[in-house]
Amino acid sequence: MKYCCNTSSETLEWISAIIDFIEPFSFLINAHVVNFFKDKQWEALDQEWMSCLRDEKPENILLIPSGHVQDHWPASLKDFVHTLRSLSFPREQAILADVDMLPLRPVLSQGMNLKKKHEVELLSSVVSSVVHTVGNPTVVDVGAGQGYLAQVLSFQYKHSVVAIDSSSHHGKVTDARAARIRKHFAAQMRKSGSGNKCPDVPMTITCRVLSTEMLKALTDVPLEKNDLELNACALEGPRRSQSTDANRPCSLVLAGLHACGDLSVTMLRTFMECKEVKAVVSIGCCYNLLTEKSSENSCSHSGFPMSTGLKSLRFSLGKNARDLACQSAERWSSLGEDAGLQNFELHSFRAAFQMVLSKHYPEVLATSPTIGRQGKAFRRQQQRKSLETRATVDSTRKDTDEKKPIKQTSSKFDTCSSFTKFCLSAFSRLNLEHPQDLDLLATWNEAEAFTELIGPYWSIRAALGPVLETLILLDRLMFLQEQGDPIEVVMIPIFDPTISPRNVAIIAKRL
């Protein structure tokens, strides 16, 4: 079935279908994979699925979150994957026919990585297009970071821009970078003899707690050079840079590039509560940081759920589900076999280390310890080993007549050694002494028989991620659709999901 979200009733129907489907899998959604071995989590899944997938090729397992299945899989598993795919909002990058996208000038893209450049180039063009349709008001870049989006909107698209961020360091970096860019533009104009006015730098505001009230206050305060103290009082103590604007129009467009957690929610609420905000362009991120209204909590300003329709269903996600909503099917499918196996091995190490904590440090385990992102160092080591192994394989093939592929697997000794190093590093991060009589090899031997199940389990669980993200996005969309004011709202994927997985923009305008 193909679902639509053009009206609040259609959106609610889609939301209800998602909830009906995922509720029987709450055990899987709420599982924490660090407890895979300790709690024998594979036993809760359909044993026919696990029996089939334990011998499946890693590259096929990695495609499960993207909705791909194999013909020989059980019918119930194929139905599960296909249904999840049908319930997920499409992520294929949309063709933006009415948007005039300009390539970023080198001075503006300086310092951006490929992902950031892709995002800023596309989003700035979308925001500029929206601004022109609502009377060319001031743009507020919410959660501006180092000001990349704000500076492109200001210098390349010639809009009046305010950049807001909670970090004073980011504000200083934004100001310094903007000054360099303005100097470059001024030099280019002098060189060409152009009489055009050099674009103004974006104004920056540092605000520790961004709220709907704070954003509303922007519509009341003129941006003049000599009103720093007044502005600071009016905006609850923010820091301002000087602006060359004598006055600022009292209408705004809010734009957020991956505004984390409740920040995206605050933008949407401000749009609805403040008539001076003519439009909003929001791309959310970090759903794990959302505040959530439980059935016992009557707070109306939590990040999830937002809509009256979803609140009426009395459905809650929970932290593990919000974490899972951040999973990227496209990132999974882009992993090669080697990288996939390395990922699964690292998850096995972490889950086996949880068994160590459970047996020897139960008081530490009770605190839900985190051991940091050790995976990167181990992944680099494994990649080096993989390259060395491949070189040895190629050399061996030159000296033999047979050209059969040689399976690249780590020896048992190498795996045990890697697990020991992983544990020692984890002990260090948790400030724990390593008992001399602790037999890590015995723990690994206990877990090893089930390590081939962690990849299938992790992939099946990750397949729920896009649906959970869809639920969060549809809740935000329905919140806007439920409002009485005449507004136009769309939800559209504007980035390439393989480059930027959180690629869905919610765009709303007052009519």
From TrEMBL:
Signal sequence: where?
Answer: none
Q: Where is the composition biased (Basic and acidic residues)?
A: 395-405
Specify where the region named Disordered lies, as residue ranges.
Answer: 372-407
A matching Pfam family: Methyltransf_32
In what residue span(s) does the Methyltransferase domain sit? Answer: 115-292
PANTHER family of this UniProt entry?
Answer: CGI-41 METHYLTRANSFERASE, METHYLTRANSFERASE DOMAIN-CONTAINING PROTEIN
Specify the protein name.
Methyltransferase domain-containing protein
Q: Which organism is it from?
A: Arabis alpina
Q: What is the lineage of its organism?
A: Eukaryota, Viridiplantae, Streptophyta, Embryophyta, Tracheophyta
